[in-house]
Design brief:
272 residues, mainly alpha, 12 helices
Length: 272
């Protein structure tokens, strides 16, 4: 029962941090230090990735109508626009999908540590503040997803490659990149959500295959609990972010990242 309660907490943290540009990995590393799941190392490694499936299902639920190109409620033009959006998502996913597949094991072995996480938390926190200051009086070039060009979609995907480095934050990298490329904050956030769909499904599938499908009853319960909680919490987090960016910039998340990065450094130095 205790492990199930821990899985609930992990699901809450995942559901919040996956969508806000504050690095779910950074929070997960800290959480793992404070509240460890009593599981094998191989299951823990898989769990930290596959729990994201719960979060991604929230995107599919909230945007099902918008992302469904076969909806009977859409006109022919709207169906074409939906397919075009999916083409842009596929183009945007290619860089991270290719490099993630090739270097997944190397990244886990060499960069999954608190130093990397702390540095990237602070670095991208600073970059968020700089980017928002730079764009303060600029008008967005792309204020709708339909206006987003294929070239820009691919370039945003190149920024997503940066999220392969732990602590960067997938949503943080894509949102920051999209803003620098001229999108509005709402377009940056939504396109980041959509890019996450194939990326998270692919990453989860890769981890499941590597782990194998030989689960104990407790492992299944932990995994499903974490995913279910992440799903519910993600719905609230996504709605909050979309509402927040209508009236506010991302600088508060930049400052939060800087503070968290410093706390990560202080914690691990004190624990050494």
């Amino acid at each position: 029962m205790l492990e199930i309660l821990k899985a609930v907490l992990w699901g809450i943290v995942e559901g919040i941090t996956e969508w806000l540009p504050i690095s779910s990995t950074g929070h997960m590393i800290l959480l793992d230090e404070l509240i460890q799941l009593d599981v094998t190392d191989s299951f823990r490694e898989m769990f930290l990735v596959v729990i994201q499936l719960g979060a991604i299902l929230a995107v599919l639920l909230l945007y099902f109508q918008r992302l469904n190109p076969f909806s009977s409620g859409k006109t022919t033009r709207q169906k074409k626009e939906t397919m075009t959006l999916w083409y842009k998502v596929v183009i945007g996913v290619i860089p991270a999908a290719v490099l993630g597949f090739l270097f997944d094991d190397w990244l886990d072995q060499h960069l999954y540590n608190y130093i990397t996480v702390a540095v990237t938390l602070i670095l991208y926190g600073v970059l968020f503040i700089i980017a928002e200051n730079r764009n303060r009086n600029r008008r967005a070039v792309y204020d709708t997803l339909n206006a987003l060009s294929y070239k820009t979609a691919f370039l945003i995907g190149m920024f997503q490659v940066l999220s392969l480095i732990p602590g960067t934050s997938r949503s943080g990298a894509t949102i920051l990149g999209a803003i620098l490329l001229g999108t509005s904050r709402s377009v940056a956030a939504e396109f980041s959500f959509f890019l996450s769909i194939p990326v998270m499904f692919g990453a989860s599938a890769l981890k499941l295959v590597k782990f194998g499908f030989s689960f104990t009853g407790m492992e299944i319960a932990i995994l499903l609990t974490g995913m279910a909680v992440a799903f519910v919490v993600s719905i609230g987090a996504i709605r909050f972010l979309l509402s927040y960016v209508k009236q506010n910039d991302f600088k508060v998340f930049g400052w939060y990242r800087i503070v968290l990065g410093l706390l990560v450094i202080i914690y691990f130095i004190a624990a050494a």
